[in-house]
Amino acid sequence: MIATALTKLLHIRVPVVQGGMQWVGTPPLVAAVSNAGGLGILTALTQPSPEALRVAIRETKAATDKPFGVNLTLLPTINPPDYAGYARAAVEEGVRIFETAGNNPGQLIEYFKSQGCIVIHKCTTVRHAKSAERMGVDVLSIDGFECAGHPGEEDIGGLVLLARAAQELKIPYIASGGIADGRGLAAALALGAAGINMGTRFMCTAESPIHQNIKDTMVKATEQDTIHIFRTLKNTARVFKNKVSTEVVALERRPGGAEFSELRDLVSGARGKIVYEKGDPDYGIWSAGIVLGLIKDIPTCEELLRRIEREAEDTISGISNMVKPRARL
Ligand SMILES: Cc1cc2nc3c(=O)[nH]c(=O)nc-3n(C[C@H](O)[C@H](O)[C@H](O)COP(=O)(O)O)c2cc1C
Q: Which PANTHER family does the record associate with it (predicted)?
């Protein structure tokens, strides 16, 4: 067993978190990850209202007696969702672990901490990590450039970002982005992390709620099959490379670029949702990371976490065997 500050704080067996995933982080997947010994996280904004989130939390509780969390993602949007309502609903339903992500999380963090909750804040720079640390979060989730979704605009890969986190942070942090196996977990631990956060790998599990054809598409895909959209809008997102995302990037690269209003229909969340429901990978935009290249199967969460644990232990003991005692003169 690998015991870390994360497993001790969250009372989980394996130091692996399933990060919030729009349309994917639903009760069946969350309960499966938690039952397998990791931390499953429900994605609040996948639910259409705070009341619907209450129902999803109750459904998850009925399927697992293990700890799980709720993700609240602060989006750059003109009409923000009822964040306070979602947060209150989750706290009232007894959720005690939250993953926050996105801009200006101060008020949310303050609220969760005032309610005695554990907050894992996900961010992509050491500067933001330090500021969240000052706000009193318990754990930082450091998302490197490899990640699915929003890697920020600074393009720092996980290797340097985590080593910088080791230099600068006082509280535990986990490594996110680009991890799909036990070697990744061992590497994260070597870089001072207390565990890992994975998104893309968990999409491609038996309990993930997305269409079988999308899972099969992910197994066939390689590390070349993602693309960054919205670079020109300074809201970069790593998504699966398909007809729609390629068209978005072509529009952004036109002389004079593209306004968001010209891209809105192509990138709509509703179309992305239909990808997962109907199984046509070309129908809309959907997030995926370069770990696509590492994914070769569709295991249950239990199989996946057992395998990651075993591989990490083997990797760590293999490395330990390289260390020979120094000869004494
Ligand atoms: C399909 C999908 C949807 C995601 N949606 C969200 C989200 O709504 N909020 C969030 O904070 N992160 C979101 N993420 C990012 C993940 O929580 C995690 O940080 C990321 O996937 C880590 O990189 P990896 O995919 O290489 O493991 C999403 C990732 C995926 C793959």
A: 2-NITROPROPANE DIOXYGENASE (PTHR32332), 2-NITROPROPANE DIOXYGENASE-LIKE PROTEIN (PTHR32332:SF20)
